[in-house]
Amino acid sequence: MAWHSENYFGWPNSTFPIQQGIHLSLHSRYNKPQAWMDIVSRYAVTGDEWFVRLSMVPVDIAGPLRAAYGPQISDVFARAPIPQGIAIPYNQIYQEPHS
Questions:
Q1: Of the residues 48, 69, 82, 96, which has the maximum number of CB atoms within 10 A of its CB?
Q2: CA distances from 36 to 56, 65, 93 (A)
Q3: Which residues pair with residue 16 across a beta bridge?
Q4: φ, ψ dihedrals at 13, nearest 5°
């Protein structure tokens, strides 16, 4: 199980429990909308479930931060760079879902 929120600034009051594989599909819904819609169709009962009401239009939640602090706010590594000589293994950043 994992926790999902569309607005991580409201954590933990706006979180929902969700199975990890479905959670990955949820976060990929903008790039792979049909896969997400298949899940919604399969699990929706009333059509009023929280996951049915999620927007299919990407929201720029960092927009207010860039407006307040400038465009560099979107570049996390420019503000907190990984020290030279430190290698982070690819699989610690990007992970494939387990079957």
A1: 69
A2: 9, 29, 23
A3: 4
A4: -70, -15
* Structure token pair of residue 89: 């293994």
- Burial (CB count within 10 angstroms: exposed 0-12, middle 13-18, buried 19+), residue 2: middle
Q: How far is CA 30 from the centre of its chain?
A: 10
* pTM tops 0.70: no
CA–CA distance from 35 to each of 27, 44, 81 (Å)? 11, 14, 35
Note whether 54 and 26 are within 8 A (CB). yes
Each residue's pLDDT tens digit, 62-82: 777 788 887 777 655 555 666
By CB neighbour count within 10 A (0-12 exposed, 13-18 middle, 19+ buried), where does 24 fall?
middle
With tokens 């602090």, the residue in question is 69
Distance between CA atoms of residues 91 and 44, nearest Å: 33
Which amino acid is present at 90?
A: Y
